[in-house]
Amino acid sequence: MVGKGGESIPDEEWERFLREAEAGTKGTPEEPLARARMVARRLREETGRPEPWRSHQPARRHGGKVWYAVGLLVAVALLVVALDPGRVAGWFGGGESAPLAAESERPDQPPPTEAAAQRPTMEQPFRGSPAAQWGDGMAGIGLPEARATGWMSKGRVAQALEKTHDFLAASSLDPGVLRGEQPRKAIALINPHQQGVQDYLATAFRAPSRENDPLLLFSRFEKTKVRPVGDVVKTRGRITYREGKRGAVEVTSDVTYVYPVVRAAAGSDEVARTMVRREVVMSWDDPAKVVIEPGTFSLVSYKVDTTNGGCDTFTGYLTPEFSAERAATRPGDGPEVDPYDRSTSLETRMREAGDAGCGTATRS
Q: Which region holds residue 87: left if phi is over 0, alpha if psi is between -120 and 50, else beta?
């Protein structure tokens, strides 16, 4: 153990301390503190990370010893913090704040920018980004409680929300789709009788263009050019719903996805991030009023705002730039945009941008 000023306290002193504690010497701290010293020493000697707090399992209760166990844990925690605060910070992601709770309503301001100067690495691809505190995959998308709405009972609404979750996962998070494969699972959830949408889907992958761009609904990278860093996509967003036309349940998803990638070439380690904010409005229609297959929805609208995914390039793939390309690219003539700012609706952001062309991201 290290005392004040950093000097080491010999083990003999601690043995005397324990003997006096057992004898009940006046002024000796309670036993939990002595036990805490031994546990703290064991913690310092460990090389592995402790179990994350979110997966903590309550200790079994043994009659009459519950309060003792709680006191011991508190003493251990305080002592370890005092002895090695850096180690404790490492348990929580290298000193970063705890993960944010799922978004339940639109925030009133953009996230802070204090860490923006920190560059991403292969080990920490979200470093220096607000996304470091966002959820992993679907965990970052808030899901509301189901209630009877329109033609649907509470149970049917719950099923519609679950299917909406499935569509978002299959369209924007599926590893195969991110590598450029066709999003068949996602397409299977879209009403096959919605002819205009089916025409768009058939054309988008064969001959992508401004009007028929698969990136409006799906996130895809060309695997011969880039590859994902790790298997985590950070997300922040929410799902809402209301009664729509003809008693349908109209579900809206507004989600920002953050994709870290490197060049496909072996040995590449420069990490770039592509941010995609996508809003999809879908109608879970009453089959008694609309021609639709069970378990599918009709698309009402879809919007996308992309950062570092290519501007005025309609290849059907997100095309991130790295430092070399950015150095050779002229700044866009559009407005500056914070891709992590969710305090403004996507419709408002797009209306303010108008036809100004490619904008400039204030951070990556």
A: alpha
CB burial string 199-238: b at 16+ within 10 A, e below: ebbeebeeebeeebbbbebbbbbeeeebbbbeebbbbbbb
| pLDDT tens-digit series, residues 171-199 | 999 999 999 999 999 999 999 999 999 99
For the record, the structure tokens of 145 come out as 């409680």
> Measured between alpha carbons, how far is 278 from 260 in angstroms, rounded to an integer?
17
The crossing angle, in degrees rounded to 10, of helices 11-23 and 31-45 is 150
Can you spell out the DSSP letters for 294-358?
Answer: TT-BEEEEEEEEEESS-SS--SSSB----HHHHHHSPPPSS-EE-TT--SS-HHHHHHHHTT--S
- Supply the pTM of this predicted model: 0.73
Q: Domain locations in the chain?
A: 4-52+59-91, 130-361
Cα-flanking dihedrals φ and ψ of residue 274, to 5°?
-110, 130
Tokens of 42: 């064991």
- Strand 234-243 and strand 226-228: the pairing is unpaired
Tell me the pLDDT tens digit for each residue of 99-155.
888 898 999 999 988 666 689 999 999 999 999 999 999 999 999 999 999 999 999
Residue 310's region, left for phi above 0, alpha for psi from -120 to 50, else beta, is left
Query: Which residue's entry shows tokens 């953009």?
Result: 110
Q: Is 259 exposed, middle or buried (0-12, 13-18, 19+ CB in 10 A)?
A: buried
